[in-house]
Write a structure and sequence with these properties.
298 residues, mainly alpha, 15 helices
Length: 298
């Protein structure tokens, strides 16, 4: 959520810049008609689609995007390591076979040829297998060196980069998940208390609504103010201090009255969508409902 907010804020700045550029382009189209930066800003407006990451249905896409962003540091150092290795072997191949083969005539050519060989494209400029040409010319020493270098880079370095990248992405996703749970811990606790009170006492919702309406009538009588009906309906049972105090009081009364929940009652609760939604928002796995009671009751 934090990184998504950063992306949204940057997109907002980009949109503001695009609006300014559009205004400038409108007022002085002859001056800015062929300026490339104007087109870049206009194309940059496509980045506003990053806002869709805030929707729940795009949670997997958000995880992939955040994983890539968190792994940019790993990718950078992976490129640095791979460049250093290819540079060393490129210099070696340039000194060994650079005079007889155009593919290794210069260090840049040698490095790019080695990169193609490491990424399954090892052929010369005419399309013939480059490794086979070198084996015929240099024999067994080249074969042994080629196998060792290929195993070192393709199997060792590439797989190590992939493993570290996956570990970094997984760890970042775990930390991000824990941070999100911590940010909404208070609201989740209040929602869980409210649902438990409603499950134990089905009439509590009507009493909470009545208490909220009584507060509205009292305030409107004092100040001659009353919010719109749809706004009152939306905030009737959530978010208001008096309502939150009501649910907190009811929960404390239930807790001190000795009310117990057995397995049968808990299994009935698990059939209620509201209770399941609260558990899922708290990152509680509800796939194994039978053992869930024992885990929570421990």
């Amino acid at each position: 959520m934090f990184l998504t907010g950063i992306l949204c804020s940057r997109c907002a700045l980009l949109e503001l810049s695009a609006v300014l550029v559009a205004v400038l382009g409108f007022t002085s189209s002859g001056l800015l008609e062929d300026v490339t930066v104007v087109r870049v800003f206009r194309l940059g407006q496509l980045l506003r689609t990053v806002r869709v990451l805030n929707f729940k249905m795009f949670s997997e896409l958000r995880q992939i995007t955040m994983g890539i962003m968190n792994g940019c540091g790993v990718l950078f150092w992976a490129v640095v390591l791979l460049f250093a290795v290819i540079y060393v072997f490129g210099v070696v191949m340039r000194n060994l076979v650079g005079d007889s083969m155009d593919e290794f005539k210069t260090i840049p050519n040698s490095m790019f040829t080695l990169f193609r060989c490491f990424t399954d494209g090892c052929s010369d400029y005419e399309g013939a297998p480059l490794a086979e040409r070198l084996r015929i010319v240099y024999g067994a020493p080249f074969t042994v060196g080629y196998v060792c270098v290929t195993m070192l880079v393709a199997v060792g370095i590439f797989n190590m980069i992939m493993a570290i990248f996956l570990e970094n992405a997984t760890a970042s996703a775990g930390r991000r998940k824990q941070r999100e749970l911590g940010e909404r811990a208070d609201s989740t606790e209040k929602a869980l208390r409210r649902v438990i009170v409603q499950m134990v006492d089905p009439t509590s919702l009507e009493r909470a609504t009545g208490a909220r309406e009584w507060d509205l009538d009292r305030i409107s009588g004092l100040f001659d103010l009353r919010p719109a009906q749809e706004e009152a309906d939306r905030k009737r049972t959530t978010g208001q201090p008096s309502t939150q105090l009501f649910w907190h009081t009811q929960y404390e009364l239930l807790k001190h009255s000795g009310v117990t929940v057995d397995r049968k009652t808990f299994m009935l609760w698990l059939q209620e969508p509201a209770f399941l939604h609260v558990l899922e928002s708290a990152d509680v796995d509800v796939s194994n409902k039978f053992d869930l009671f024992d885990v929570l009751d421990a």
